[in-house]
Amino acid sequence: MKLGAPRLHFRVVDSTNARARQLAEGGAPSGTLVTAAAQTAGRGRQGRTWSAPPGKALLCSLVLRDPPKLLPLAAGLAVAEVAGEGSMLKWPNDVLLDGRKVAGILVEGRPRDGWTVLGVGINVAMRESDFPADLRNRAGGLGRSPDEIEPTLMQLLDRLSDWLSAPAEEVLAALRSRDALLGRHVRWAGGEGEASGVDDQGRLLVSANGGQVTLGSGEVHLG
User: Fold this and answer.
1) 117 CB contacts (<8 Å, ≥6 apart)?
2) What is the tens place of the pLDDT at every residue in 73-111?
3) In angstroms, how far apart are the furthest CA atoms of the chain?
4) 124-143, pLDDT tens digit by residue?
5) Residue 219 class from Cβ within 10 Å (0-12 exposed, 13-18 middle, 19+ buried)?
């Protein structure tokens, strides 16, 4: 899968995902890339904001047409490989390094119109002091320099190209090998229990109240 062309780069933009959505609605081809050095209205999952000091993070969004069913999981794997050895995945696609979240992934789209936007933010060169005080015990960076942001982007596009075209069983096997939740106590909006892996549809399995709960979407928390 060819990714990264055409490319639109901004010094400052409201949201790379918002601009990629506009391009998708206008008929942009699959693989179209939007990047920015800084965002003023970056968005994360569950309606959160995503912010980073200018020139410290990789901020990008891709237009995809007919993406794989397991796109969120495949994207998480690609980012985990970019993050490096020891990186783990907190279902569905939070990437953790030394227990701290180092990247954000946001998938949006209109399947009926044939397009999806994949947004990725990676804390390439962010240090502890770059994070808001309330995130410093949970967020982390890759420990790289600002001039490594572009090479990191190239690496990400390469890994995404491979994982987005990989068979579902290969994606699931790789996810299970990086499962940060397996055997751990988790909470979600509907209850709590012990995470017991993912099923063949990529859904999270949780042992709770003597039975098994299957979570297909939403967010879970450790502890």
Assistant:
1) 17, 20, 21, 24, 61, 62, 63, 64, 107, 108, 109
2) 999 999 999 999 999 999 999 999 999 999 999 999 998
3) 53
4) 999 888 888 888 888 999 99
5) middle
Residues 6+ apart with CB under 8 A from 145: 125
CB-CB contact of 88 with 80 (8 Å): yes
Location of structure tokens 């933009």: 13
Residue pair 186/193 in contact (Cβ under 8 Å)? The answer is yes
Write out the H or E segment, with its range, that includes residue 119: strand 115-122
Which residue, chain included where needed, has tokens 């999806």? 116
CA distances to 22, 113, 184 from 25, in Å: 5, 8, 41
Residue the block writes with tokens 């949006």: 108
pLDDT tens-digit readout, 127-183: 888 888 888 888 999 999 999 999 999 999 999 999 999 999 999 999 999 999 999
DSSP string, 153-178: HHHHHHHHHHHHTS-HHHHHHHHHHT
Do residues 179 and 192 make contact, with C-beta atoms less than 8 angstroms apart? no
Q: Which amino acid is located at 110 in the chain?
A: R
pLDDT at 186 over 70: yes
* Rounded distance between C-alpha atoms, residue 65 and residue 17, angstroms: 15
To the nearest 10 degrees (0 to 180), the angle between helices 149-164 and 71-83 is: 140
For 90, phi then psi, to 5°, come to -100, 110
Q: Do 182 and 197 form a contact (C-beta atoms < 8 A)?
A: yes
